[in-house]
Design brief:
Dissimilatory Siroheme-sulfite Reductase, Chain: A, domain 1; 2 domains; mainly alpha; globular; 5 helices
Amino acid sequence: MTTKTYAGTSVDVDAEGFLTNADQWTPEVALGIAKELGLQLTDLHWKVIEYVRADTKAQGQSPGPRRITVGAGVSMKDLYTLFPKGPGKLVARVAGVPKPKSCL
């Protein structure tokens, strides 16, 4: 396990950079992760992030892209625009939840 620091907060991450303890997540940590990934978060990003965190807590596993589009009310095209090159994986990293099982 590795430790990274975002916005002055140390968090535990796995080899792919996913938080291993969702309780360490804060919006400031999310901003740091997003910056590392080259993302500038907008209100629509936050809507998706909040949905993913709530859905993960309710379902016990991270949602894949299809469930995100339905639950967050965004199109697949918009999801790929917000989180290019693998939206399920990227939004999970920023949201501080495990990588979705549907992502390789």
